[in-house]
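Job type: complex structure
Entries:
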Amino acid sequence: MNSVKPSVWAGIIILCLGIVSLLMSLQYTYSGMVGPGPGFFPVWLSGIIIVLAIWYILESIKGKNVSAQDWPTGQSLKQILFIIMSLISYFILFLLVGFLLAAIIFLAILFYREYKWYVTVSLSVGITLFIYVMFNTVLKVHLPSGGILF
Amino acid sequence: MMDSFFLLLQGFETALTWQNILFCFVGVMLGMIIGVLPGLGPVSGTALLIPITFGMEPVTAIIMLSGIFYGSMYGGTITSVLVNVPGEAASVITCIDGYEMTKQGRAGAALGVSAIGSFIGGIVAVVALTFLGPLLSGVALKFGPPEFFAIMMLGMLMIVALMGKSLVRGLIAAFVGLLLSMIGQDLVSGEYRFTFNSMELMDGIDFAVMAMGLFGISEILLNAENPTKIKNAGKVKGLLPRRDEWGATSKAIGRGTGIGMLLGVIPGANSIIASTFSYILEKKVAKDPSRFGKGAIEGVAGPETANNAHSGAALIPLLSLGLPSSPTMAVILGAFIMHGLTPGPALFTKNPDFVWGLIASMFIGNLMLLILNLPLVGTWAKIAMIPYKLLFPIILMVILVGTYSLNGSVWDVAMMLFFGLVGYVLKKLDIPMSAMIVTFILGSQLESSLLQSLSISTEGFMIFFTRPISAVIMFIAITVFALSIYSGIKNKRGQLAADVEM
């Protein structure tokens, strides 16, 4: 195990979130003409989140009520990072070259390790075209076929 | 009483147009598929289909979305029984005796009994909705902002108290959900809050984007970690239990219906609690409890009935009070708002066509599911056999495109992916996302009812304790809260406290 538990880090992040939102909330009107203003609820929320975050950090340090879930290591960590990377590359490709190419490449990346290359290609192209046609014609949602590059 | 009956008949008029029948069917079919397939749950499934409903009449849209919800309850059973893999969390308990029965070659009886039980549980719950819904909404019409605030507080605290193993983690989820709902323009004052000067954040975060990320993407990532291996299911023969089992089975179905309905009305008491409770009860009342775990038919009939009765009853607080009792209900509530309907007591009087059409459609939907389940059970088993390595890229693709199609915005896609990662981390930390999405959707209502209460109040926060109805509700809420702190200190939070989607 690391010296600092993940849940302590999570607690610190939530604490920061609470502090930032408290600082922002204080800029909104706390109390208006007819009663509490737009700042009222957020100030209270942020305050409560700060208290809860501190409580959570203390509980985590004491090792009370810890999460039963394990963090991934080795092979499963690789698998997860792989999926996350392919999602991010889809997003970038979608911006650059539009839906069609991005989707085909994204699906191909995911299928490639499990299927032979010709199965991969036909699956990726087939599924992409199916979704494209469905959304553009039946559901009338326009998916861009080009991006920034062309 | 008679009023409800006539209104229901009128509801059938709405529900029986060809269009509504078609989309009811589409809804329950998709629900079955979502139930059968691992890696796609009802929350992300419902959220995913919201863009499709944009062009529809509100009633058609909600008929389809609720069909997905109760349909998935039927579907989840099939894989539990046949291959010992629960399609949905609510069917985990069915694995115990259901899979045992399959090993004894009695898969057909197990599936038949759960389809019949689910049908009975579902129908009785809808009947309860027919008569209780208008009653409850009649009472709630007299409520003012303080009462609504108190009810929402109670709902929130119940969810926090019942979901998740640690109280502090549940509260964190609930309050972060509320904070996220503050992003965007404040409806009362028109002021923009927490937008960081970004154009996209001015409209706030779309609840469907959040639901798909938190529940869709994170589920895929979790599955990637420990892939579920599904082996081939055998042939399913015969759908009825043995003659000597009928008595015990029908009693189990009766008890399951009662438990499911009771727990369905309580916010936060999710369907997994209903099915587990029913299993425990069946074991308690059985003459020979040692049969349980070795293929006792009551162990399948009871829990399966309970989770379906639960899903029907969960619509009672949603329609009459506007209070979602689970994440899927919260997403459906979001769809209500998107279609210009205000959920809450006024719904029954303001949009009777809508409410009664929806209720009537649930009778039809449950009947369709019974037919889909009894003769076609083998086909569903085959769908469950689709290899996951083929499935998950397609699910990801559909989530990506579905998010984009909400507003045609790339920002939404980025936001959804971000919530996907957050959801995965939250799952690992065991912070209940269910609490987060429910409070996120209730956030603006909670704030406006609080502000309204405080502005009509002359004694500040005391208004919640001086008005009798809100005082009682607040008292219950505080008791629930105190009890959950107590159980936290005593470390008595049991196995029931799981974070599940239903």
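Summary: Helices of chain A lie at 6-25, 40-62, 74-97, 99-112, 117-138. DSSP finds five helices and no strands in chain A.
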